[in-house]
Write a structure and sequence with these properties.
The complex is a heterodimer of chains A (179) and B (400). Chain A is mainly α and 179 residues long. Chain A has helices at 4-10, 17-35, 42-56, 58-63, 65-73, 82-100, 116-136, 141-150, 154-171. Helices cover 62% and strands 6% of the residues of chain B. Classes of the chains: A mainly alpha (179), B alpha/beta (400).
């Protein structure tokens, strides 16, 4: 990871955060205006999980309580949902952005006190927790917190406070992974 | 009026739109630096607050936009998806996500962005969340009670606090401005850079902060779409126009029998009154919900004439006036009540002896027309082609 420094010199600087936030807000407003719903992320990953289960565990797909409930209201390919298409768009958009700003390349971001292996382990563990929590909380930072805030949803704002509050509460115990 | 899906844009095209909007979402997130976990968790250690700045600016911009759009009638908030509140799972789910955020360094959207530009930690995070989501589905039967506990419906913050949406937006704007100053201060302390507020920057930031507050204030003071329509409809001119376009019961009955397909016969009484009895082939659009978007197509079309009736001529005129304001449809009123119409055509009464020739003629005509209307209604119903109200579906949203 010694090359990071050199690459960062060539990278274009990030956008001004207030400008980026304003643009993101306008995008969210357009999304609500066109589709009547907000942006999301975890729902796109959920569609993949559903497809994997349907493909590789057909028996379980028929018997599992969650999947039975899902099948009641959805037929056809689980990927055939708004959020999955949106997430495909996110991948393309982020890649394009990285490309024009010279930020594409295989890398790992981590605190300087841990190894790459530890970082990947933590990323996987964090992913498990976030994935689980997003299902329980009916949405993640995008679908529940951000989109919920746009429509002044009580539940969305509770989830937002809960996510950031809990991260602040435990941040101290995980400081060696980051600083 | 928005939302454009599904009434204006088809559901198939909606997926293409998802792709395009997703592109913008990914692009902006990556440009903000959200593809770097070190940058993301910076806010929890005080060295980088970019997440708070982007997140709060975006949320506030969209919130003010939605508020103004719905106030001025560009967006029908009644069919926009508002995340329903399930208090217990929202809190517990949020707590778990917060821990996942600190440990993993990403949230789902940002992990996708990071993966897209080649970050291994982002990809592993996605893999983890696949397992996390699957785990939730597996233990769903065990936690479903908790999952649905504390259901409060599509509740909003202004409803909880008992304040107007405009006041809530103002409070949020003020709070956000305060947060921005605070985090800038903390960031410079943590990074050991002297905290400076040059006058030029203060002026610039204040001007920027005034814009949202101005938009909210304008929204608050301007009459909203409903108020504007009401005011126009109450114009005496409109009410007078109703009298010029009035049909009596006999004429309407003839139209029903001969030209029913040219008319929307609109009952503006309550659904209960409509249910107990209504004119043949009429549909029900209650006066107090006449401005709802679901009925808009009836007032904006110009291939069928609309005729309104109720049990109170003033109500009928009111409906006529509102319809005139909403759309370009050709509107008429029935100048008698539904009760009179019913007595005239559907309640057989004996003719008094020695009635004039004129009276007998009307009597025979009404008896015959009443029968014809009944026959027409029956035959249309047999072929399921009696007029029916199209039902509007609420948008399905959410992330989980």
């Amino acid at each position: 990871m010694n090359t990071i420094k050199k690459e960062e010199v060539q990278m274009r600087p990030y956008m001004n955060p207030y400008l980026a936030g304003f643009l993101l807000g306008i995008l969210l407003l357009i999304t609500i205006y066109i589709t009547g719903r907000g942006l999301g992320a975890s729902g796109g990953i959920k569609a993949v999980v559903l497809l994997l289960t349907k493909t590789f565990q057909p028996l379980h797909w028929e018997n599992g309580a969650y999947f039975q409930k899902y099948a009641l209201s959805h037929t056809g390919n689980p990927l055939d949902t708004w959020l999955f298409f949106e997430i495909v768009g996110v991948v393309i958009g982020a890649f394009y952005s990285g490309l024009i700003s010279n930020r594409v390349g295989f890398r790992i971001d981590r605190g300087f006190r841990i190894t790459n292996k530890t970082r990947l382990l933590m990323a996987g563990l964090g992913g498990i927790l976030f994935g689980f929590g997003s299902q329980l909380g009916r949405g993640c930072t995008s679908g529940a917190a951000l989109s919920g805030m746009a429509v002044m949803s009580f539940g969305g704002i509770v989830t937002m406070i809960s996510i950031f509050g809990s991260a602040y509460l435990v941040a101290y115990f995980f400081r060696k992974f980051w600083i | 009026m928005g939302p454009l899906v599904p009434s204006i844009i088809s559901n198939e095209f909606d997926l293409i739109i998802a792709l395009i909007l997703g592109f913008g979402f990914g692009f902006i997130l990556e440009q903000s630096g959200f593809s770097s976990s070190k940058k993301l968790v910076g806010l929890f250690y005080g060295y980088n607050f970019v997440v708070i700045k982007v997140f709060m600016t975006a949320g506030l911009t969209a919130m003010i936009g939605v508020l103004a759009f719905s106030h001025f009638g560009l967006l029908d908030i009644s069919i926009v998806y508002i995340n329903p509140t399930f208090l217990k799972s929202a809190i517990i789910g949020g707590l778990i996500m917060g821990v996942g955020f600190i440990i993993g360094g990403f949230c789902p959207g940002t992990s996708v962005c990071a993966s897209a530009i080649g970050k291994w930690d982002g990809m592993v995070f996605i893999l983890g969340s696949v397992f996390g989501i699957y785990f939730f589905m597996e233990i769903y039967p065990l936690i479903s009670d908790m999952y649905f506990d504390g259901a409060m419906g599509a509740l909003t913050m202004p409803q909880i606090l008992g304040i107007s949406e405009v006041s809530f937006a103002l409070i949020m704007s003020a709070m956000t401005a305060g947060i921005f100053v605070m985090v800038s201060f903390i960031q410079s302390r943590v990074n050991k850079i002297p905290f400076e507020l040059p006058k030029k920057k203060v002026v610039r930031m204040s001007i920027l902060a005034i814009v949202p507050i101005l938009i909210i204030a304008v929204t608050g003071f301007m009459p909203n779409r409903l108020e504007r329509i009401e005011a126009k409809a109450n114009d005496p001119e409109n009410l007078k126009a109703a009298e010029l376009k009035a049909l009596d019961s006999d004429k309407l009955a003839i139209e029903i029998v001969n030209n029913y397909y040219n008319w929307n016969i609109i009952d503006v009484r309550s659904p209960e009154e409509y249910k107990s009895w209504h004119l043949p082939l009429s549909i029900n659009i209650p006066l107090d919900s006449i401005l709802n978007r679901e009925w808009e197509t009836y007032f904006k079309q110009d291939f069928k004439k609309n005729i309104y009736y109720s049990d109170d001529i003033d109500q009928t005129k009111k409906a006529f006036a509102l319809a005139e304001v909403i759309g370009k449809a050709d509107n008429y009123i029935l100048n008698s009540t539904s009760k009179e119409f019913r007595t005239m055509f559907f309640e057989p009464h004996t003719l008094q002896a020695g009635a004039s020739k004129e009276t007998v003629k009307y009597y025979n005509f009404r008896e015959e027309t009443g029968k014809q209307m009944n026959d027409l209604k029956k035959s249309l119903e047999r072929f399921h082609s009696a007029p029916k109200i199209k039902k509007m579906r609420k948008v399905q949203g959410g992330c989980a």
